[in-house]
Write a structure and sequence with these properties.
One of its GO terms (biological process) is regulation of cell shape. This protein is an alpha/beta fold. It has 16 helices and 26 strands. Strands 11-10-9-12-8-13-14-15-16-17-18 form an 11-stranded mixed β-sheet, sandwiched between helices.
Length: 490
């Protein structure tokens, strides 16, 4: 239970109709969850406007309603709070409801197109390796110390975020890392949170089905840094073309990391293999179980964040060597036939390029790469032909297959991808809609020294088809194939 006027303390209001001196028993933006004494926040959504459900919320016992426009009929026993932005208000209300947990943690946010999950997860892992209790909010899984909680969106809604942060505080966590998606920044899901640091990884084409333009996508990412407090740190990738843009209006302390130029935190690849990298960090060499330039960037960012959080430099370097790749991120499986299968979450053109370049750097021009890739349905269609073109340019064989078609027909998605291929590339491309069969075909085609890249789903253990999630895990399929090969003695 909380007093309404206490909850409203940090919220900008336009008008309050009714008494704010009443007890609130619950807080929600979902009218289905309203019970007697609830504060209901009517948020305009992407597809549904929460203002439509104010009458239902009042009928179910809501004591107060936060809204941007008053309903036509006002109930005399309900307090109505008019605000400029319900989404913004929900963030601050959620923080107040859970006693502002972000202010009791050293919270680091990571944003960018690629590398968010790996960077946030490794900061969480580093905190634990260095003896601290920590939490994680990520695409793969949410963690409160070592207790896992399932995840939905890359960045959850404000109530879920603050509840999980509150659980971290209750569990004695000192640190927390979280992915900050462009959707979350644009929809005010991080409003009311106090970050100690922010990290920018990179920016390439993605989510244009939502943001419509690259400029709007950039602005959503930049918004996170614009809102950082003056005593926080802002760490940006100096090698990305918009890296400096992210820091233009931030009040936070500014730092850079780079693999190519002078920066506060400088990484340099000394040696790269499929099973690891020797990386120099500010002149100190460390052996890491990660492959590829994109991972070198992620690890340099992690190194910088660890130092900016005040952790001992020598301890940081020692523990970084113990880090292991995130599930479904450049996860390698070795076949008795002598080929290597790599499962990776790469689902944007830039991510596919990064992973394939990393493989090519290790195996050289003599090795064969077979790429299995698709594209998600009901998402940015413009990236489909680009992904196919980039994959074909960096692979000897290409197999186009289904990803998460959602409510589209898989065949139509593959036809969109094929539009990016020239005649020569089409001669090296197979079209196999069934993803399991596509992976099996790649394994059949592979020979000793080949590398199969299975891109797009990574850690996901489902395929979403016509609104239903069917169990499917690329890693399970690869393990089954390798087990079969071992059993047959091939």
């Amino acid at each position: 239970m909380k007093k309404l006027n206490e909850l409203l303390a940090p919220v900008q209001t336009v008008e309050i109709i009714g008494s704010d001196d009443k007890m609130i028993s619950g807080l929600t933006s979902d009218s289905r969850q309203v019970t007697e004494g609830t504060l209901f926040v009517a948020v305009p959504g992407v597809s549904v406007d929460g203002h439509r459900f104010i009458p239902m919320a009042v009928e179910k016992g809501a004591t107060a309603v936060v809204c941007q426009q008053l309903p036509e009929d006002l109930s005399t026993h309900v307090t109505y709070i008019v605000v400029p932005s319900s989404a913004l208000a929900l963030g601050y209300l959620a923080s107040q409801w859970w006693d502002n947990p972000s202010r009791k943690l050293h919270l680091v946010g990571v944003t960018g197109t690629n590398g968010k999950t790996t960077t946030a997860t490794l900061i969480y892992e580093m905190a634990r390796l260095l003896g601290h209790k920590a939490g994680l909010l990520s695409t793969v899984c949410n963690y409160v110390d070592d207790t896992a909680y399932p995840t939905g969106h890359t960045t959850p809604d404000p109530l879920t975020i603050n509840e999980l942060l509150h659980r971290m505080v209750e569990a004695g966590c000192e640190y927390a890392a979280m992915e900050v998606s462009s959707h979350a920044a644009d929809q005010q899901r991080i409003a009311g949170l106090r970050f100690e640091g922010g990290i920018f990884t990179n920016l390439t084409r993605d989510h244009l089905d939502y943001h419509k333009t690259f400029e709007a996508y950039l602005a959503a990412k930049k918004k996170f840094f614009d809102l950082l407090p003056a005593d926080a740190f802002a760490l940006t990738n100096a090698d990305d073309k918009v890296g400096d843009v992210m820091l233009q209006n931030t009040r936070a302390r500014r730092f850079t990391y780079s693999l190519r130029s002078e920066a506060d935190f400088r990484g340099r690849i000394v040696e790269s293999r499929l099973d690891g990298t020797l990386l120099s960090l500010n002149g100190h060499e460390v052996e890491l179980l990660f492959t590829g330039k994109f991972n070198a960037y992620n690890l340099t960012a992690v190194y910088g964040a660890c130092i900016l959080l005040g952790w001992n430099h020598d301890d940081v370097l020692r523990e970084m060597s113990r880090l292991v790749p995130v599930a479904g991120r450049f996860q390698a499986f070795h076949s008795p036939k002598g080929y290597t299968a790599i499962v990776d979450y790469a689902h944007t053109p830039d991510a596919v390029v990064n992973v394939l370049n990393a493989i090519r750097e290790v195996i050289g021009r003599q090795g064969e790469i077979i790429t299995v890739v698709g594209a998600g349905g009901n998402r940015d269609k413009g990236k489909r032909p680009i992904m196919a073109r980039e994959a074909a340019a960096r692979s000897e064989r290409l197999i186009l297959t289904s990803d998460n078609p959602r409510f589209e027909e898989p065949e139509e998605i593959l036809r969109d991808m094929e539009e990016g291929l020239d005649e020569e590339a089409r001669t090296r491309t197979l079209h196999i809609t069934d993803r399991r069969q596509a992976i099996r075909t790649a394994a059949t085609l592979a020979s000793k020294g080949s590398v199969i890249l299975i891109a797009g789903k990574g850690h996901e253990d489902y395929q979403e088809i016509k609104g239903v999630k069917h169990h499917f895990d690329d890693r399970e399929v690869v393990r089954e194939i390798i087990a079969s090969e071992s059993a047959s003695g091939r």
